[in-house]
């Protein structure tokens, strides 16, 4: 403590406490927070593929004897699967559904100007079976397959879960 001088007219001198000098707080620098990792680049959206080329095993033979093997099938819509159900031929014979349905979704076959159910109806059975399978692959896009594991050897493999005819799930 120390004595402070009295000011004129302030009265007697009194001992007043003097604050002790305080040390300045030490400054410490924390390391800067680690920069957040850069976000992973967003996956590039693939455009929806709606048409799929194919080649028939035997080929459709037109009235002039020309063989047409290369074609294009588009994705089916709900309408494509519903409209054939109103067709009298399908109502009388449900097996005809695949013929009418394929006639709607095949957009090109060789040099034919137009593809319709009459063309599909006159294809070889092996080509029809190929197109039915191709239709399932194109429209299911792998959703009818499931990855499983063998309970005995733990070997992974895939099984087909889809329906057996066009228009079935």
What does it look like?
The protein is built from five helices and seven strands, in the order E-E-E-E-H-H-H-E-H-H-E-E. The strands form three sheets. It has a three-stranded antiparallel sheet. A hairpin with a 5-residue loop joins strand 3 and strand 4 (67-74). The protein has 169 residues and is an alpha+beta fold. The chain is 24% helix and 22% strand.
Concise account of the structure shown:
With 169 residues, this protein is of the alpha+beta class. Helices cover 24% and strands 22% of the residues.
Descriptors for this entry?
169 residues, alpha+beta, 3-stranded antiparallel sheet, two-stranded antiparallel ribbon, 24% helix, elongated, disordered C terminus
Q: Count the strands?
A: 7
Helical content class: 10-25%
User: What gross morphology would you assign?
Assistant: elongated
Count of DSSP-assigned helices: 5
Q: Could you say which structural class the secondary elements and strand pairing correspond to?
A: alpha+beta
Q: Rg, please?
A: 41 Å
Sequence of strands across the biggest β-sheet:
3-4-5
Distance between the first and last residues' Cα: 96 Å
The major beta sheet can be summarized as: 3 strands, antiparallel
Average pLDDT works out at 80
Could you name the ranges where pLDDT drops below 50 across 5 or more consecutive residues?
Answer: 163-169
Sketch the topology as an H/E string, one letter per element: EEEEHHHEHHEE
Beta fraction:
15-25%
């Amino acid at each position: 403590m120390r004595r402070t001088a009295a000011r004129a007219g302030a009265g007697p001198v009194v001992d007043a406490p003097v604050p002790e000098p305080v040390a300045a707080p030490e400054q410490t620098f924390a390391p800067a927070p680690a920069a957040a990792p850069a976000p992973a680049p967003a996956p590039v959206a693939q455009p929806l593929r709606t048409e799929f080329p194919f080649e028939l095993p035997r080929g459709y033979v037109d009235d002039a004897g020309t063989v047409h093997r290369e074609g294009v099938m588009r994705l089916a819509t709900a309408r494509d699967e519903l409209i054939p159900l109103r067709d009298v031929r399908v109502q009388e014979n449900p097996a005809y559904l695949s013929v009418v349905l394929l006639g709607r979704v095949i957009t090109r076959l060789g040099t034919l100007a137009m593809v319709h159910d009459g063309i599909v109806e006159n294809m070889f059975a092996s080509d029809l079976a190929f197109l039915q399978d191709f239709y399932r692959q194109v429209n299911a896009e792998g959703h009818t397959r499931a990855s499983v594991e063998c309970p005995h050897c733990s070997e992974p493999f895939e099984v087909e879960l889809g329906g057996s005819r066009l228009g079935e799930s």
